[in-house]
Q: What sequence folds into this?
């Protein structure tokens, strides 16, 4: 026969006291909550056409809705190979011819320029200021339409640019920016409304000690309830540990 180990009640109680945590069930509770969606409040804000027009005029007056100024340019690149002085002499000779009314296309065919310059015949087109490289940006503010300038500050090439023309910035049309303006006003008004409601709800709950049922009725919000859940429960709403 197998030996039978007898365990006394005192031993059982002693084991239970020493290992009580192992016999404890997980804390759980039922919860009620309100859902306040900032996005829903923002999208529900209605904006009148007069509000949109008023904001448009304010932005026009402050210069926020003007198109970028553009610059139409000729550009020649004389690559520096072994000797920068040689490239600079080449560029200066070309500059003198340009100042004598020779065309940029003529220069691209006569002088040693890079491949891109040969392909575009010295015309690079129209650009906004921010789209231009720094060595051109740094020189444009002092140039007038028709000015030609040689730039020797770069290590790998000598540049010649001509400002053909610069545009006067025009204001964007109302119909082109109405959607953008509406979104901005909705976001500002909706965000203010959201935080105002949130502060009011907090006051009712934490200052006035009103129950959620009453708070939900005052704002016509749905009161949600959970089943009994423990500290490990998570979903899209109760995403933090309860």
A:
């Amino acid at each position: 026969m197998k030996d039978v180990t007898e365990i006394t009640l005192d031993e059982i109680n002693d084991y239970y006291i020493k290992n009580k945590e192992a016999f404890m069930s997980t804390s759980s509770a039922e919860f009620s909550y309100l859902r306040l969606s900032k996005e829903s409040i923002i999208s529900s804000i209605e904006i009148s056409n007069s509000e949109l027009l008023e904001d448009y005029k304010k932005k026009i007056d402050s210069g926020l809705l003007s198109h970028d100024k553009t610059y139409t340019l000729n550009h020649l690149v004389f690559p520096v190979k072994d000797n920068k002085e040689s490239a600079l002499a080449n560029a200066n000779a070309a500059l003198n011819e340009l100042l004598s009314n020779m065309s940029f296309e003529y220069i691209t065919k006569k002088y040693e320029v890079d491949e891109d310059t040969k392909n575009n015949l010295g015309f690079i087109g129209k650009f906004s200021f921010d789209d231009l490289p720094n060595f051109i940006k740094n020189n444009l503010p002092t140039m007038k339409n028709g000015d030609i300038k040689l730039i020797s500050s770069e290590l790998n090439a000598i540049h010649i640019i001509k400002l053909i023309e610069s545009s006067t910035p025009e204001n964007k049309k109302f119909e082109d920016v109405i959607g953008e303006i509406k979104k901005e006003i909705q976001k500002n008004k909706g965000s203010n409304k959201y935080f105002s409601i949130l502060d009011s709800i907090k006051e009712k709950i934490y200052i006035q000690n009103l129950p959620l049922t009453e708070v939900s009725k005052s704002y016509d919000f749905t009161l949600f309830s959970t089943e009994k859940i423990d500290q490990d429960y998570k979903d899209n709403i109760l995403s933090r540990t309860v």
